[in-house]
Amino acid sequence: MSEAALLTARGLGVRLAGRVVLKDVSLALSAGHLVALVGPNGAGKTTLLRALAGLIPSEGEITVGGDALASLPLRERAKRFGYLPQGHLVHWPLPARDIVALGRYPHGATDPARLSPKDAEAVLRAMQAVDVMEFSDRRVTELSGGERSRVALARALAVEAPIILADEPTASLDPRHQIDVMKNLRATADTGVLVIVVTHDLGLAARFADHVLVLKEGNLVSWGTPSEGLSERVMADVFRISAYRAEYQREAVIVPWADI
Amino acid sequence: MSVEAVTLTNEEAARRRIGTTAALAVIVVLLMLISLGIGPVRLSPLAVAQALFGGGSEVSQVIVREIRLPRTLLALAIGAILGLSGASLQGLLRNPLASPSLFGAPQSAAFGAVLVIALGLADVRSYALPVAAIVAAFASVFVLLSIAGRNAGLLILILSGLAISSFAGAATALVMNLSSNPFLVLEIAFWLLGSLEDRSFQHVMLAFPFIIGGGLMLFSQRHAFRALSLGEETAQSLGVDVGRLRLFVISGVALGVGGAVAVTGTIGFIGLVAPHLMRPLIGHDPGRLLVPSALAGSALLLAADIAVRIIPSTSDIKVGVLTSIIGVPFFLYLIMRERRALGGGVA
Known about the structure:
heterodimer; A: alpha/beta; 2 domains; six-stranded mixed sheet; four-stranded antiparallel sheet; 32% helix; B: mainly alpha; ABC transporter involved in vitamin B12 uptake, BtuC; 15 helices
C-alpha cells in the first residue's frame, strides 16, 4: 500500500463519551482497492469508518487525495466519500429513484425533480450498475430487504466519489444478495474507486477483498492480503476461533470453524 | 434505458404537484374573499373583491379594508406559519406526529406573553409581547430537541412534548392564580383560547415581521429535510450541516409560532393536520411538503375562522377552541395509525 495513497490516517484516535474507542490507527489506502475492515463486535469498525469520513470528531490526521480532511468544507468532503451506513434506513416512503438522486446532493442537485443532464446520467449509471431501474418508481418502504440494500448502494454510488465507505452492506441479506452486493463493490473498486467495507463475514472478506484491516479493541492489529491479514495467529488472537483455510479459483477461502 | 427514464417520470410527478399547489392557492384566495364577506354585514365575494380594489360603496370599503382585512390577513399568515412549522418539525424529526402544539411551543409562547403582561412590563400592543412569546417558544423547542437527542423515537418526543406543554400550562395557571386583577385573568384566558376577533393592522404589524422571518428560515431548509430522510448521519455525509439545520428549525418555529401566539393566543393542531392532508396529494418528500402544508394551514385556519362566525351560538366560539376540537380526534386517529411504531417505542 505504498503507491500514492488516496486515503491516509496518522495517529487516528476517537473518544466517545470519555471512552477510548479507537487509538493510534495509522493507515494508507490506494485507489482501486477493495479493503475489508473486520474485527469482533465493539472493536471500533464503524467508528473508524465514521472518523475517516469526518462524521465524528477525532484526533490525529486524515488526508484525502493529499488534502487534510479537517481543512475541507462539508460540501467538499461530501463529494469525496460515498457513505453507506448500516440498516439502509429511509424514513419516508420515497420512490427509489429519488433516494438514489440524493447521492447527487453534494454536487448541488438538491432537488430530484430538477436534475441536470449530468446528474441524471450519474443517477442512471448508479441504478444500472446495481440493477434497480425496474423499481425506480416503487417506494423504498415497499421493497424487500435485498432490493432496498441495492437502492442504498446505488445512492452511495451516485455520489461518484473516489472513496466508498460501506458499513456492513451484506448484513441480513441472503447468500445470493450478499455475493451480489460484494460483486458490485468489487466492480466499483475495479473502476478505480477505493472501497472500504465493514463486514463480519470473513469468508466474503477473503473472497472479494484486496486487503483486510483487522481491528481489536480500537487498535489496528493486522493488515495485508486476506491470507496474510487473516493469518492463523490473527484468527486465534483476535477472533478466538480456528478456521478452515484453502484456495479455490485462486482466491483465499477462509471458513470460521471452531472456537478456541 | 436512457436518461429520460430517470427524468421524464419526475416531470409527470412535478406537474401533479404544481397542479395541486395551484388549486390550493385558488382555494385560499376564495376563502379569503368569503372571510372578508362574513360579519354583521354580509357581502358577496364579488362585492368584497370590488371593495378591496377601491370599488363599491364607501361603507363596504371601510368594512372590508379596515375592519375585516386584518383578521383575514392574520388567519392567512398564522395558518401558513403553523402548517409550515408542522411540516418542518416532521421533516427534521422524520416523524409524522411532530407538530408545534404537541411539543408545547404555543403553550410556552402563551406563557411568555402572559408573564410579560402580568408583570406589567408591556401593554398588549408592544413588541415586548411577541419577543417574550418567541423567547419562550424557542426555549420549549430547544429543550424538547435536547431531550430527544439525535435519533429520538416517537415515544420520547411525545412524552417530552406532553411534559413541556403541561409545564407551560401550569406556569400560566400559576400566573392566573397569583394575579389579583380580574381584568388580567380575563386577558390571560384569551391567550389560552386563541381568537382572531377584532384584530387591527397594529396586530398585523406586530406579528408579520416575525412570521415572515420564521417562514423564510424554515423554507430555506427544504432541501436539507429531503437529505435527512436518510437519517442524520447519512445527511451529514451528503454535506448537510445537521447542527445548523436544527438551530434554523428551532429558531424558525419559535419566531413564527411566537409571533402568531402574541396576537392571537394558542391555535393548535393546524401544524399537525396540514402536512397529513397534503401527503396523499403531494407525496412524502419532506422538502416538497412545505409550501403545500403552508397553503393547507392557511385554508384550514381561514375555514375555521369562517365557521366560528357562521355557527349559531349565544356567545362567540373561539377559533382556537374549534381547531383543537377538530384536531384532537385527528391526533387520536393518527396515534391509532402509528400504533405499531408507538408500541415499539421507536419510530
